[in-house]
Amino acid sequence: MAGTCLPSCLLSQGPSLLFSSSNQFSEAKCRIVITSEKRCLVRCFAKKKISLADQILDYIEGGPKLRKWYGAPKLLPKDGSSSGDDDEAEEEEDDVDGDKDAVFVTDGDSDLGQMIILQLIVKGTKVKALVKDKRKALEAFGAYVELTTGDASDERFLKKAFRGVGAIISPTEGFLSNVKSLRGVKHAVLLSQLSVYESSGGIQAMMNNKAKKLAEGDEKAVISSNVPYTIIRTGKLENSPGGNQGFNFRTGAAAKGSISKEDAARICVEALSVVPPAGLIFEVSNGEEVVSDWEGQLMKVMQTQSEKK
């Protein structure tokens, strides 16, 4: 094809991405249709599979070259682990804290955890995540997330996991109630379904009993942690698309209403922008109120809570 001039009419259709909650994805065949006096069709097939995070950034921002703007760290080994030398060096570090600019997301394998992580990546935030399957998570998020796996009740593990962490987002029950100390963390954000569990009755109440106890334990733990906290009591979590509805922040909204997981994930991320002096607890479900300024909205909620005391 060298030396051949391109036709004046060029149509190209890029890849379309399909995402699922299980981190699986598919890429449609890309095609380039060139028309001139004689028509010809050229199909090209992508040979290299890139991570879910890379695909989302390409899809949203328009190209692989822009990924570097999101500060992807140095690539880790395929199993998601760091080298033994690095681990030894970390163990030798003292308790003097350096930059605490990372956000630690618990249960990064869950739907909510994945949604939160992806929104943090798009914001250019440094992310660390607790996952059950490092290899699978590495395939999903590539080098944009520092992955870790371990027991929340293991103080040695947490000391290492929290190194460089300034904030925690816990989207599911059971993590914070097992943590003995949040030393060094500057802000903890907890998504709680406690209002939903407390309002359920009959068989549903029995089914929610274990989750209710975990939610109660998480809230108690974060309130007594001496770390500024934000507890977001949401309505029933739904698998509906986010961004299509407004919000309801009134008292009782969580017990009676519902909210899409995508919207709940966004609120968790936006909550990082407002660190309360001590603690902030509020309810939210999907509703009629349109929010364009999340920092202002959260400040308003905090002011309303302060006036009620």
UniProtKB/TrEMBL annotation:
PANTHER family (alphabetical): OS03G0410700 PROTEIN (PTHR47869:SF2)
Species annotation: Arabis alpina (Alpine rock-cress)
Segments forming domain NAD(P)-binding: 112-272
Region entry Disordered, spans: 77-101
Superkingdom, natural source: Eukaryota
Protein name listed in UniProt: NAD(P)-binding domain-containing protein
Record field: compositional bias (Acidic residues): 84-98
GO cellular component: chloroplast
InterPro entries per the UniProt record, alphabetical: NAD(P)-bd_dom, NAD(P)-bd_dom_sf
